[in-house]
Amino acid sequence: MINQYVMNTEKKAIQDVLDICHDGYKGYERAAEDVENEEFRTIFHRLAQQRKLFIEELKNDMRDRGAELKDSGTVKGYFHRNWLDIKSAFSGKEDATVINEARTGEKEALDVYDKAMNSEVPQYIKDRLQKQRRLIAGAIVQLNEFERELAE
């Protein structure tokens, strides 16, 4: 039997990851709509699908442990996306701005993953989180490369 405190702590940590992944999924879908560059659009769609996969993997892991979690995102993510819509209505949707906002979201995701990996979750879930975190860090590298391309 899993200690109730441990399970609640574990659920909270993974719920936070699910929420940031949902924000990432929605954010990348929005970014794909906003960018002009076709290559960036394709990559943003791929990253959105990757975040969706992260959600399903973690939900399945938690379901195996007897916990049902939802992926609804955060209020902060919702308002951030809406703020970008308002901002872009006045300033135009520049690819560099979209890339910068995506990078900001990914850096926040790394922080959420770090907290979850330092919480009381089983090792196999920590291993999954570590793998997903590496892919998010790779996305940041790719976003940096996009920014360099735009600067040239």
From TrEMBL:
<dbReference type="InterPro" id="IPR012347">
    <property type="entry name" value="Ferritin-like"/>
</dbReference>
<dbReference type="InterPro" id="IPR009078">
    <property type="entry name" value="Ferritin-like_SF"/>
</dbReference>
<dbReference type="Pfam" id="PF09537">
    <property type="entry name" value="DUF2383"/>
</dbReference>
<protein>
    <submittedName>
        <fullName>PA2169 family four-helix-bundle protein</fullName>
    </submittedName>
</protein>
<feature type="domain" description="DUF2383">
    <location>
        <begin position="12"/>
        <end position="118"/>
    </location>
</feature>
<dbReference type="InterPro" id="IPR011971">
    <property type="entry name" value="CHP02284"/>
</dbReference>
<dbReference type="InterPro" id="IPR019052">
    <property type="entry name" value="DUF2383"/>
</dbReference>
